[in-house]
Amino acid sequence: MSLLITGGTGYIGSHTVVELLKQNQSVIIVDNLVNSSIKVLDRIQTITGKTVTFIKADICDAKAMDAIFNEHKISAVVHFAGLKAVGESNEIPLTYYHNNVSGTITLLQIMAKHHVKSLVFSSSATVYGEDNQSPLDESMPTSATNPYGMTKLMIENILFDLAKSDPQWSIVCLRYFNPIGAHESGLIGENPHGIPNNLLPYVAQVAIGRLEQLQVFGDDYDTHDGTGVRDYIHVVDLALGHVQALAKLPQLTGCHAINLGTGNGTSVLEIVEKFEEISGKHIAYTIVSRRAGDLASVYAKADLAKSLLNWQAQRDLHTMIADTWRWQSQNPKGY
Fold it and tell me: Which of 29, 116, 286, 331 has the most CB atoms around its CB within 10 Å?
């Protein structure tokens, strides 16, 4: 039996595939390569010494997905595939709803047809919206402020309804906070197309000379240094959260939303200072006005992951940034 990993050549997907291969799991990656590189497959093989089955396909393509399930014996699915840029989602909302929501429905229909009812879903802390105070816990009301966040929330609601309708489903929705870092080898890491949307790749590209300076959105928040505070988690810790969720699925029924975060917050300027210290590079930045919808402080309450999945984040901020810098300095232009 094999695990199907949708979006498995992406940032979090590729790191999860590495951790699964290290546990001698049989893995099949399906990815349309819209936001990722085929070169990732060779890097995964170099790290693990193992080859992985790769199928180029789109989760929206029911015929292609059905063929995968016909050809391979799938025991469970880890579903990463999806568009993920908040700003872009405001510009092309229909594309996001079609790809993320309709694509997931297609995947679920094919899974049900083949009696594969074990799923780990890549959700997001964006589902907590603007009105909850950190630390954010899974019992809080959910909402969304942009189409990307809304797709994650809609998929979660679909999964809860599905599990309610059929008790054979075992589903875990993992709500990520802010993944950063890279594999310690420096072979795989975050490789954004165009201008990075996230802080760490942006800082790393300033450090390597690809970008001139960082824009810090607001220095007048109610935080210790006025800049936004976020819960940064190492991507390998995040990957191991998926490994643990898969291991626990056979003992779980229904649908469970679980935070994956460290429970600690770090400000933008603390990230910049730490990156300068580790890389030895000056990070030029300028303060600009706040972005609409940005919150002062967002960090997780991660107790449920510990009690339900026996998981907690292990890697500290120094390791996260050192691994980011190793990846960026070894791959100045990405893959």
Answer: 29
pLDDT band at 178; cut points 50, 70, 90: very high
Structural domain that includes position 250: 2-184+232-263+300-313
Question: 294-316: b or e for each residue (b if 16 or more CB lie within 10 Å)?
Answer: ebbbbbbbbebbeebbebbbebe
Q: Is residue 66 part of a domain?
A: yes
Tell me the three-class secondary structure of 52-96, residue by residue: CEEEECCCCCHHHHHHHHHHCCEEEEEECCCCCCHHHHHHCHHHH
CATH of residue 155's domain is 3.40.50.720
Q: How many domains, in total, are found in the chain?
A: 1
Q: What is the pLDDT of residues 90-134, one digit of tens each?
A: 999 999 999 999 999 999 999 999 999 999 999 999 999 999 999
**Is 48 contained in some domain?**
yes
Q: What is the pLDDT of residues 180-194, one digit of tens each?
A: 999 999 999 999 988
Does 280 fall in a domain?
Answer: no
Cα angle, residue 137 at apex, residues 136 and 140 outer, rounded to 5°: 95
